[in-house]
């Protein structure tokens, strides 16, 4: 609810999309208040919000106050994550007025936002701002379309609709790609053997040598080493004609062993004789969340001395996570591209680090994924449709008071890794840093429905496709496309192997320090580059 | 030549520093000036040149089965790890290199073993003389508007009588008489009296520099006080001046015991005294050593590297220098107050701080020629002891310190914050850096102007500045626009610690795998050149149209892939996977290896023409993955948690 509420006022500021409501086109204080009231009334959870706003507006309206409020709104909408805002709002406000009293009020307001966030799943009044420019189709692609586009796939793989009612795997889309000679009954059995029903499905087909990447969740072998013949057959069918395949487990072998004590597990060598398992430990969940909190905290204070900053940066381990993610993705891509063998990837649930490295590996290998459309389609396929629980993972960002178990910045880590790729191959990606920044913002606070909910099923139940707009569609509109494409893009067919030396990886200053004047200088540079290329392009055409 | 014990060694292996499993086999040649490694491979002639004067240390390690290791560290941060098959050969190479890399000081003909005296590019004598006239410091002072009614050129040090480490031409306040200057110089360490470094035309504020006063615990000097008074009076708009001591307070106090020290605010009228704690040369030297240690770690984790960087304290020192520069620049530009800067002798920290302040203050010093002038003025002419600090000759190791490196890095850090504000690129700084140490040009030989004249460097060697100017196309920053808002006036950088980056381009310059594989800069440069060409052609086309507009259309056809991509073939990249696997995966034979055969783009130093005979002359390594030395796939490097199959069958 709050998301929608936020978004309309945002139109107000950015004028990024035409809006039908007359109230939102008005930038005066009363206009804003009217807009606010309208939206608050439209939902059941509006009362506390209204109350807070009442107190807020009731404070003596000196001209200074008004100026401050404007400032607050500005910071509010420009922050990457709703809760990052808490700190920023507080700081900006203190700077302006130096009065603590009022800043406390603003904070109450923003922490309330966090509460409002969690009610998204229960929301029933989604607003869909009418916008004539957006096409009716929701999303860029569907599994069906993806399958039909890849003709090479058709002799050995088929599109299964075993999950059309979301009964076999609640977090999968209705249609998935599986080996041809595995029928739906077998799939149902395999699903019972994998955590959350996430049986192995194809996510990438490497045209150069016909190998594939599949992903799943961990097998439920348990302590007494259960087997599932159908699962073994499925994996065997996936590497038909090849001598072996790799399984990349994003846990350490120790963790995998531990998981088997609690019902999870891994494929034993004896049952999956042609599969070779590789373990690469990747942090997930809480550890990642804590890492982000520490990093944001370190970035928040410009008065640290150098030693303290470097030790905080090191201590946050964020860059280590970036390094691990990129090198695991590199390993995956190396198995496929250079070694010529198919790979199955999973962690435990197969919804976080699994998606992270399969996405990065596809960016490394597949030239199409590096285009603007290709990248958005990749995100839609590998994150939205594949069931990354955005609502649970991206609810609070770094400043949550309630340390929720489910919060984890995996998607942000992905964007950071993509940014590192872009730094190292500035000509090879068809999109710009601005797109990554926009996505990082949208994942936490959006006026589009794309990142709402945890799975396809939930989105379907809520009727998101009917009631909201699709972000990816919006990003491909001509004006957005201009701003989010990379002016220097030169397509290359080759794989782009990132360097993972510590010296080669950098803090994503454009994101973590986007409030600093330095970030603005860097934006100016991007602008400059764009202008240079445009000028050259015009001349070359004339 | 007599030092070369062994001119040629065959079957030497050159190991890659980053991934030691990759190595190249070839022949090692020792010449009088260079060590050259030529790879044995039919088809590719792959050479690595190492200039002997750039060699910092040669280390022979204990012999192993594969041969004897020879580790060469260079002053430009190149590290070469050779494995020589026979120990005797290694021993000979080691001794020869040690001797060759340390030119000896010969009393009668000093410095003659230095490379600059034997370096003879294809330039005739007249041209060589002109090279030295390329930069003229007097022109720079007149650009600042000097001499004028407030500042005059003083002949007092014409024969280096007053201070032998100062240049002959010095600007002093118009009211300072020779007796005052000489009196003041007697009260200053090594006679380095307060003199002008930078003058701001707009508000008459000036940056002056000197060495520490010999104040001890209570000594005073009337002339020195008059000298400062004169400097203050040369700035009519302000009623006080800053005296900045760039040392930590403790160091300054310790100096008092030795009869040196700092100005007492009570004795000098209207000064504001300020300490800025920049550490001394010994701390800086150790810090850089530690930082380089962190760069050299073999496959470090992120934490190892960041810890190493932190414990070295290097970035902290860079920040201190930049902070000091900002303090002075702000005093001059914003407050309009003159500043006197000194440290101990006034040739290390003072040079750093004054030149950083100049870069911040004056857009001119952010141009190609401006930076050369600045280095010539604040470093070369004011007597930064290049020979000692850069260890050009065998000398006291305690005198060596990377002071100029820190200045160049400060400029680089500023470039990272203001990418449009500098006319030159990082390659320019790196080239200057390596030539400061290479001794190829005469500019940085000797410790001061007097020594340089005695050595006859102008008569016998070449000048770096005109070489750089001739090759300026390589050093232009395509993003620079003189009218850009970033470029105007005083730069206001942030010195929040997160704004400082590690300069991979310099310290890991030769580790090719670490750098971005595609260069935005090269791409933009190509675009810029082509835009200019097109504009000119359009202009011509216009003119022609005006003259006879029935003439057939001129073919100005440029397709969307510009000619610049001839260079862009490299940009199309190609590189090999990194060590993701820890030696696990091999490239299986069924794989086409086409992508790997191409060249890695050397972003930082595409050393085609510009650095023809410096260090890595023609070392353009192609990124061919050395499959052979990778461990075979069957090697099981990961532990298998379920190797106990018995357990399964039992269950």
UniProtKB/TrEMBL annotation, chain B:
InterPro entries: Myotubularin, Myotubularin-like_Pase_dom, PH-GRAM_MTMR6-9, PH-like_dom_sf, Prot-tyrosine_phosphatase-like, Tyr_Pase_AS, Tyr_Pase_cat, Tyr_Pase_dom. One of its GO terms (molecular function) is phosphatidylinositol-3,5-bisphosphate phosphatase activity. It is a peripheral membrane protein. Residues 131-507 form the Myotubularin phosphatase domain. It holds the Pfam family PH-GRAM_MTMR6-like. GO terms for biological process: phosphatidylinositol dephosphorylation. Keywords: Coiled coil, Cytoplasm, Hydrolase, Lipid metabolism. Residues 605-651 are annotated as: Disordered. GO terms for cellular component: cytoplasm; endomembrane system. Substrate binds at residues 280-281, 343-349. The active site is at 343 (phosphocysteine intermediate). SUPFAM superfamilies: (Phosphotyrosine protein) phosphatases II, PH domain-like. Signal peptide: none annotated. Residues 517-544 form a coiled coil. It is found in: Cytoplasm; Endomembrane system. Residues 312-356 form the Tyrosine specific protein phosphatases domain. Residues 605-621 have a biased composition (Polar residues). It comes from the Eukaryota. The keyword Coiled coil applies. PANTHER family: MYOTUBULARIN-RELATED (PTHR10807), MYOTUBULARIN-RELATED PROTEIN 7 (PTHR10807:SF35). Belongs to the protein-tyrosine phosphatase family. Non-receptor class myotubularin subfamily. This is Myotubularin related protein 7a. It comes from Sander lucioperca.
């Amino acid at each position: 609810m709050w998301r929608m509420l936020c978004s309309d006022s945002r139109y107000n500021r950015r004028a990024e999309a035409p809006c039908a409501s007359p109230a939102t086109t008005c930038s005066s204080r009363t206009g804003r208040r009217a807009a606010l009231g309208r939206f608050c009334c439209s939902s059941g959870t509006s009362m506390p919000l209204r109350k807070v706003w009442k107190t807020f507006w009731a404070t003596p309206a000196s001209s200074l106050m008004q100026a401050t409020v404007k400032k607050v709104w500005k910071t509010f909408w420009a922050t990457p994550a709703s809760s990052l805002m808490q700190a920023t709002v507080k700081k900006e406000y203190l700077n302006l007025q130096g009065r603590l009293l009022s800043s406390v009020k603003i904070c109450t307001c923003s922490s309330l936002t966090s509460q409002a966030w969690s009610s998204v799943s229960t929301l029933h009044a989604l607003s869909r701002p009418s916008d004539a420019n957006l096409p009716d189709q929701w999303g860029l692609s569907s599994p069906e379309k993806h399958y039909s586009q890849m003709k090479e796939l058709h002799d050995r793989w088929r599109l299964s609709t075993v999950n059309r009612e979301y009964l076999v795997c609640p977090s999968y889309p209705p249609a998935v790609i599986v080996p041809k000679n595995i029928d739906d009954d077998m799939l149902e059995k395999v699903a019972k053997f994998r955590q959350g029903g996430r049986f192995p499905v194809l996510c990438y087909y490497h045209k150069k040598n016909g190998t594939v990447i599949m992903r799943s969740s961990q097998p439920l072998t348990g302590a007494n080493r259960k087997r599932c013949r159908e699962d073994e057959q499925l994996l065997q069918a996936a590497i038909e004609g090849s001598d072996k395949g790799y399984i990349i487990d994003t846990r350490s072998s120790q963790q995998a062993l531990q998981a088997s004590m609690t019902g999870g597990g891994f494929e034993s060598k004896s049952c999956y004789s042609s599969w070779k398992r590789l373990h690469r430990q990747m942090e997930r969940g809480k550890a990642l969340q804590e890492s982000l909190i520490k990093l944001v905290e370190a970035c928040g204070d410009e008065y640290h001395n150098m030693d303290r900053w470097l030790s905080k940066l090191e201590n946050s381990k964020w860059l280590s996570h970036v390094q691990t993610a990129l090198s695991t993705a590199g390993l995956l891509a190396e198995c496929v591209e250079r070694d010529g063998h198919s790979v199955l990837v999973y962690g435990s649930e197969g919804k976080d680090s699994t998606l992270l490295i399969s996405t990065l590996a596809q960016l490394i290998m597949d030239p199409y994924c590096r285009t603007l459309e290709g990248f958005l389609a990749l995100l839609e396929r590998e994150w939205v449709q594949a069931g990354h629980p955005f609502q649970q993972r991206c609810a609070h960002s770094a400043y949550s008071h309630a340390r929720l178990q489910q919060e984890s910045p995996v998607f942000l880590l992905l964007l950071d890794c993509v940014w590192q790729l872009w730094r190292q191959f500035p000509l090879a990606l068809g999109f710009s840093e601005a797109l990554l920044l926009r996505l990082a913002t949208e994942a936490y606070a959006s006026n589009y429905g794309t990142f709402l909910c945890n799975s396809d099923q939930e989105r379907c139940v809520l009727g998101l496709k009917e009631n909201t707009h699709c972000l990816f569609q919006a990003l491909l509109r001509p004006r957005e496309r201009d701003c989010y494409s990379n002016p220097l893009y030169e397509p290359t067919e080759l794989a782009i192997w990132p360097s993972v030396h510590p010296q080669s990886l950098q803090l994503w200053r454009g994101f973590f320090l986007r409030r600093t004047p330095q970030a603005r200088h860097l934006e100016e540079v991007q602008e400059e580059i764009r202008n240079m290329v445009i000028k050259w392009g015009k001349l070359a055409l004339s | 030549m007599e030092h070369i014990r062994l001119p040629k060694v065959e079957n030497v292996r050159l190991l890659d520093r980053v991934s030691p499993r990759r190595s190249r086999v070839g022949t090692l040649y020792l010449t009088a000036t260079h060590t050259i490694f030529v790879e044995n491979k039919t088809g590719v002639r792959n050479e690595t040149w190492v200039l002997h004067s750039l060699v910092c240390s040669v280390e022979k390690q204990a012999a192993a089965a594969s041969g004897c290791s020879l580790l060469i560290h260079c002053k430009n941060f190149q590290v070469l790890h050779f494995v020589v098959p026979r120990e005797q050969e290694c021993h000979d190479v080691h001794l020869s290199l040690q001797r060759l890399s340390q030119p000896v000081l010969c009393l009668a003909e000093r410095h003659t073993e230095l490379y600059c005296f034997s370096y003879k590019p294809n330039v005739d004598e007249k041209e060589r003389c002109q090279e030295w006239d390329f930069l003229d410091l007097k022109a720079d002072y007149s650009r600042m508007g000097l001499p004028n009614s407030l500042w005059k050129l003083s002949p007092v040090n014409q024969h280096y009588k007053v201070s032998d480490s100062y240049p002959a031409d010095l600007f002093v306040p118009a009211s300072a008489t020779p007796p005052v200057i000489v009196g003041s110089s007697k009260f200053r360490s090594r006679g380095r009296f307060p003199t002008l470094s930078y003058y701001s035309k707009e508000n008459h504020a000036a940056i002056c520099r000197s060495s520490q006063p010999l104040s001890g615990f209570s000594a005073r000097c009337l002339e020195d006080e008059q000298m400062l008074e004169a400097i203050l009076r040369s700035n009519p708009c302000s009623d006080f001046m800053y005296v900045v001591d760039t040392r930590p307070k403790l160091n300054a106090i310790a100096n008092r015991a030795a009869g040196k020290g700092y100005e007492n605010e009570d004795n000098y009228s209207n000064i504001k005294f300020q300490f800025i704690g920049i550490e001394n040369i010994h701390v800086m030297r150790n810090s850089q050593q530690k930082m380089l240690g962190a760069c050299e770690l073999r496959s470090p984790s992120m934490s190892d590297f960041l810890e190493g960087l932190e414990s070295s304290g290097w970035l902290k020192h860079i920040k201190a220098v930049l902070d000091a520069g900002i303090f002075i620049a702000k005093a001059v530009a914003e407050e309009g107050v003159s500043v006197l800067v000194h440290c101990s002798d006034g040739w290390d920290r003072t040079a750093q701080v004054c030149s950083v302040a100049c870069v911040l203050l004056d857009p001119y010093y952010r141009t190609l020629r401006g930076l050369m002038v600045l280095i010539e003025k604040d470093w070369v002419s004011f007597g930064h002891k290049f020979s000692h600090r850069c260890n050009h000759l065998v000398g006291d190791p305690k005198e060596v310190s990377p002071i100029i490196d820190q200045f160049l890095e400060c400029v680089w850090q500023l470039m990272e914050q203001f990418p449009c504000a500098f006319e030159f690129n990082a390659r320019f700084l790196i080239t200057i850096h390596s030539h400061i140490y290479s001794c190829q040009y005469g500019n940085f030989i000797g410790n001061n102007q007097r020594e340089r004249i005695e050595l006859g460097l102008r008569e016998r060697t070449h000048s770096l500045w005109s070489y750089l100017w001739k090759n300026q196309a390589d050093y232009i920053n395509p993003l620079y626009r003189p009218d850009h808002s970033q470029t105007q006036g005083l730069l206001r950088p942030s010195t929040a610690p997160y704004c400082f980056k590690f300069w991979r381009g310099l310290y890991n310059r030769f580790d090719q795998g670490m750098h971005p594989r595609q260069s935005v800069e090269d791409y933009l440069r190509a675009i810029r050149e082509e835009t200019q060409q097109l504009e000119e052609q359009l202009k011509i086309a216009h003119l022609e149209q005006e003259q006879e507009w029935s003439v057939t259309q001129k073919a100005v056809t440029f397709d969307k892939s510009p000619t610049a991509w001839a260079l862009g073939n490299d940009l199309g990249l190609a590189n090999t996977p990194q060590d993701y696997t820890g030696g696990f995966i091999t490239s299986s034979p069924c794989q086409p290896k086409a992508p790997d055969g191409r060249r890695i783009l050397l972003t930082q130093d595409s050393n085609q023409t510009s650095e023809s005979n410096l260090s890595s002359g023609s070392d353009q390594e192609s990124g061919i993955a050395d499959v052979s030395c990778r461990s075979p796939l069957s090697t099981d490097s990961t532990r298998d948690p379920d190797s106990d199959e018995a357990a399964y069958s039992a269950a």
